[in-house]
Amino acid sequence: MAPSSTAQPPPHFPANVQYLTTPVPSRLLPATHRQTFCTPCPPHLLPNPPPRIAIRTISDPRHPANGQSGLFNASNKALPRGTWIRDYVGWVHTEGEADPTSGYDLALDRIVTDVVDPETSETSQHVEVVGCDATRMGGEARFVNDYRGVPGFERPNAVFELRSWDVPGQPGKKGVRMAVWAGPHGIDKGSEICVSYGKGYWRPQEPATTPADAGKGATSTKKPAKSKKG
Ligand SMILES: C[S@@+](CC[C@H](N)C(=O)[O-])C[C@H]1O[C@@H](n2cnc3c(N)ncnc32)[C@H](O)[C@@H]1O
């Protein structure tokens, strides 16, 4: 599989981060996950045309991520609820490869398999998390901040949710991405786009409570969000 896209990075994308439009699999990622999470999505199968967004440096001392970047609605109108904004692309990896210090890692899937003990014949469950880390490579969605403490926000205006599509020419095969979508009240023109990372992101020692959890240690404890068909 080609390691990345050749697309030009958008304005203000950091030079030390590889710009992607398609996720890049770890060499240890099983072939089935590679197929599901890293297969390119033909542009005509996107849920809607990509809305105009902008990466901007935050220069508001009241903003908890002041001095960092955020993602903004740069289209000339509000984005209605359910608008697909961008996929969360990055390096797709196994649980064992997760970096617990990463602030850009989220869980794509939890694969539960039954393991039978050959001696006792007892069955236990093995859970393997597939993660997507956008620390060193990613797209615009890596700039989505958490709404907590952001001036003017009482709740997130966007959500993380999986989307899936039928892979052309491969009956029964689905491509899957985590994506950022406009939340139930839409996203105002010019507004920053903020999700909830989930309480587990900020208090990683506690079990995750929301499916959109992203970040430090996320891949060892977090559940993926429910899926939307694109
Ligand atoms: C996925 S990145 C978001 C983009 C990041 N602001 C940047 O410029 O690359 C997650 C990091 O952004 C910062 N961040 C996001 N939302 C925040 C919030 N509500 N309060 C404090 N820091 C936040 C934290 O440093 C966090 O580890």
UniProtKB/TrEMBL annotation:
Residues 51-198 form the SET domain. It comes from Rhodotorula paludigena. It comes from the Eukaryota. The lineage of its organism: Eukaryota, Fungi, Dikarya, Basidiomycota, Pucciniomycotina. This is SET domain-containing protein. Residues 202-230 are annotated as: Disordered.
